[in-house]
Each structure stands twice: as structure tokens, then as C-alpha cells.
């Protein structure tokens, strides 16, 4: 079985994340969308909420499984027998950052990192930007799924 992980904080999951996960699901037998539970990072949504949003957003994809992980991604990969990581590249600066992480992950465990370029429609998109727009009651409907949009409205009132 060809298995890959798409990691992230997904705070919240965006249409850019969904594009990468959907494209990966067309290429692999199983995609594990792994939500980082980083207690030192201040997230808008707790890990359970992020898992719920990602599960709801990916439910139409039969070969996507949503999990959480703590610590090093390579340890999660080793524990779940996942040989490769999918990472999205939105810009050249993303590549510089992601290349260092990919090389360290390979050195630590032999896990490969595969880069997928962002769909130009979403190349500007980030969870931080979505949160900022939602905070000021801007329209995020084209940036997130309806379920996530509703969670953002509830959070920001």
C-alpha cells in the first residue's frame, strides 16, 4: 500500500490545504492528514476542533484518514509505516524553508519529502490570513469549506 502523510497545524484547514490533500489522494492509496498538537503554539482552535474540521472537510475522500501527532513528524511516520511526506510549495521562500526540513527529516529517518506546488488559485492563501479576515468579519467563503466558515463565525462572533 502506497501511503503518504500531509502534515500541518490546520488552524484552520483552508481550501489550499484541501487542494493538496485531494491531489495527494488521487496519487496514493492512503493519505494521512496529520494535525500537529503543538502545546507551545497558540492556536485559534484546539486540536480536537482542528481534527473535527479536517475530518468533516475530507469526508468525501475515501482514502484520507485524519490523525493527530505530537513531537517529531518522522517519529509519527515511523510508528505508522509512512515512507513519505507531502509538502506544499506556494513560493520560492517556501522552498528554501521546506528544503532544510526535508533534508533533516531524511537524515533523521530516511523519510522522503515530496513537494507539490500550490494551485495558483491558492498560492497566496494561509491559515493566518484566513483568521485575520474572519476576525474582521470579512468574507472567507472562497477560502475555506462551509463547515470551517461556520466555525470561524462562531469563534469570532
From TrEMBL:
Q: Which UniProt keywords apply?
A: ATP-binding, Coenzyme A biosynthesis, Cytoplasm, Magnesium, Nucleotide-binding, Nucleotidyltransferase, Transferase
Q: Which reaction does it catalyse?
A: (R)-4'-phosphopantetheine + ATP + H(+) = 3'-dephospho-CoA + diphosphate
Top enzyme class: transferase
Q: Name one GO molecular function term.
A: pantetheine-phosphate adenylyltransferase activity
Lineage: superkingdom: Bacteria
Q: What is its EC number?
A: 2.7.7.3
- Cofactor(s) listed in the protein's UniProt record: Mg(2+)
List residues binding ATP.
9-10, 17, 98, 122-128
Q: In which pathway does it act?
A: Cofactor biosynthesis; coenzyme A biosynthesis; CoA from (R)-pantothenate: step 4/5
Which InterPro entries does this chain map to?
Cyt_trans-like, PPAT, Rossmann-like_a/b/a_fold
The record ties this protein, via CDD domains, to: PPAT (cd02163)
Annotated binding of substrate, by residue: 9, 41, 73, 87
In UniProt terms, what function does this protein have? Answer: Reversibly transfers an adenylyl group from ATP to 4'-phosphopantetheine, yielding dephospho-CoA (dPCoA) and pyrophosphate.
**NCBIfam families from the UniProt entry:** coaD_prev_kdtB, cyt_tran_rel
Quaternary structure per UniProt? Homohexamer.
Q: What name is this protein filed under?
A: Phosphopantetheine adenylyltransferase
What species is this protein from? Lipingzhangella rawalii
The uppermost taxa in this organism's lineage are: Bacteria, Bacillati, Actinomycetota, Actinomycetes, Streptosporangiales
Amino acid at each position: 500500500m502506497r501511503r503518504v502523510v500531509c502534515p500541518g497545524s490546520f488552524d484552520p484547514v483552508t481550501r489550499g490545504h484541501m487542494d493538496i490533500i485531494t491531489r495527494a489522494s488521487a496519487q496514493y492509496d492512503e493519505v494521512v492528514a496529520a494535525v500537529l498538537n503543538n502545546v507551545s503554539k497558540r492556536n485559534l482552535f484546539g486540536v480536537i476542533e482542528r481534527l473535527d474540521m479536517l475530518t468533516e472537510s475530507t469526508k468525501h475522500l475515501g482514502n484520507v484518514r485524519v490523525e493527530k501527532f505530537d513531537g517529531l513528524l518522522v517519529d509519527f511516520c515511523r510508528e505508522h509505516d509512512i515512507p513519505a511526506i507531502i509538502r506544499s510549495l506556494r513560493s520560492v521562500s517556501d522552498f528554501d524553508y521546506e528544503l532544510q526540513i526535508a533534508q533533516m527529516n531524511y537524515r533523521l529517518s530516511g523519510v522522503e519529502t515530496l513537494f507539490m506546488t500550490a494551485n495558483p488559485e491558492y498560492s497566496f492563501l494561509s491559515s493566518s490570513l484566513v483568521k485575520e479576515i474572519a476576525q474582521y468579519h470579512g468574507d472567507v467563503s472562497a477560502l475555506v469549506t462551509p463547515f470551517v466558515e461556520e466555525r470561524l463565525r462562531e469563534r469570532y462572533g
